[in-house]
Amino acid sequence: MHFTAHRRDRQSHAPVKFMNITATPETPISTISPAEAQKRNGDALLLDVRTPAEFEEAHIDGSVLHPLGDLNPEEVKQLAAGKSACFLICRSGNRARQAAEKLKSCELEGLRILEGGVQAWDAAGLPLSRGTKTMSLERQVRIAAGTLVFTGAMLGYFVHPAWIALPAFVGTGLVFAGITDTCGMGMLIARMPWNNRRGPSGGSHCTSPR
User: How far apart are CA 47 and CA 62, in angstroms?
Assistant: First the structure.
């Protein structure tokens, strides 16, 4: 009987080279103090991302209104043309950070967040153009959330237990807002008519080019 030997090729055990990929952390947007921002008011774009109603109540002279919900990077890039920097303004700094994330793709020169927002500007004794008193967006969000939680709890107790889902939903939304620094309820309330009224002398407003 004839046997044929089958030779098995040995696999090559050459060392495997792995590509060294190092994740590069994103560079955070820098802040600028109110005093320093005032010094550069003439050559920098001061972009206010609050609601028109908040802008009407108090805004920095020379600032341009462009609400966060309608923020268009290309429009902002056009506004910043010829400016040495772009300073983002809101009430306390949170919405300005969200605006900065949206504008990263523009690669704007000298993009900064006004540290502490209009509140810090006012606390530093710097001048503001003032108009009709309004309720801040943050207060409106707290009132709306509290009302929904209270209503859901009452309906769950007196009408049907299923209404307890409403406070749970609101609580989940607040946790999500805290983790992501993005408030869906705030964005919704910002679009309400009373937050988008514009008076005859509310400073500069950004409009979409036609």
Answer: 9
3 state DSSP class of 141 = helix
CA count, 13 A, side-chain hemisphere, 200? 0
111-139: per-residue pLDDT in tens? 999 999 999 999 999 999 999 888 888 89
The answer to whether 65 and 52 have CB atoms below 8 angstroms apart is yes
Q: What is the pTM of this model?
A: 0.70
Over the stretch 154-202, which tens digit does the pLDDT of each residue have?
999 999 999 999 999 999 999 988 888 788 898 899 889 888 876 544 4
pLDDT tens digits along 8-23: 444 445 554 444 444 4
- Strand 64-65, strand 204-205: pairing: parallel
Tell me: the pLDDT tens digits for 65-80? Answer: 999 989 999 999 999 9
107: exposed, middle or buried (Cβ count in 10 Å: 0-12, 13-18, 19+): exposed
Q: Which CATH number fits domain 28-210: 3.90.78.10, 2.60.40.10, 1.10.10.10, 3.40.250.10?
A: 3.40.250.10
Are 186 and 141 in contact, with CB atoms under 8 Å apart?
A: yes
**CA pair distance 49, 40, nearest whole angstrom:** 19
